[in-house]
Design brief:
Elements: H1 15-33, H2 41-69, H3 74-93, H4 99-131
Helix pairs in contact: 1-2, 1-4, 2-3, 2-4, 3-4
């Protein structure tokens, strides 16, 4: 699996959220770089816990801004955020079932979901937040 490089096209135009997205990408890149160490279920569980906690922090920040400025697609985002958390928790629960297979599935899910979510869902609020003066 390849490292994810931040691209300008990932920017949602709000520095705080872009910085959080970059940190999430860095966390995934760390997992990719350390892929060979992901055979230990305790390592997988620890990394998933850190990723889930930070993702929840990021989602709260996004959802707060959406509520504060009246973004009309907030509920859709909330559902997607919860689905991500539920899925990462399910990976966490399965971390001692088959760690070698799990690590590949986990990395694929995390990287695909994050990039897809930023480029499709989060881009929907880019113009909205910019029109409200957020940058």
């Amino acid at each position: 699996m390849k490292i994810i490089n931040w691209k300008d096209e990932f920017s949602v135009g709000v520095k705080e959220l872009d910085d959080q997205h970059k940190k999430l990408i860095d966390m995934i890149n760390h997992l990719i770089a350390e892929q060979s160490s992901l055979t230990d279920s305790a390592t997988i569980a620890d990394l998933l816990t850190k990723m889930t906690n930070y993702a929840q922090e990021h989602f709260r920040a996004e959802e707060y801004l959406m509520a504060e400025y009246g973004f009309d697609k907030k509920e859709q985002q909330v559902k997607q955020h919860q689905a991500f958390i539920d899925k990462t928790i399910s990976f966490h629960s399965a971390s001692d079932v088959g760690p070698n297979i799990l690590s590949v599935a986990l990395l694929d899910y995390l990287s695909t979901w994050l990039i897809s979510h930023i480029l499709t869902e989060d881009m929907q609020y880019k113009d909205f937040f910019n029109s409200k003066g957020l940058s």
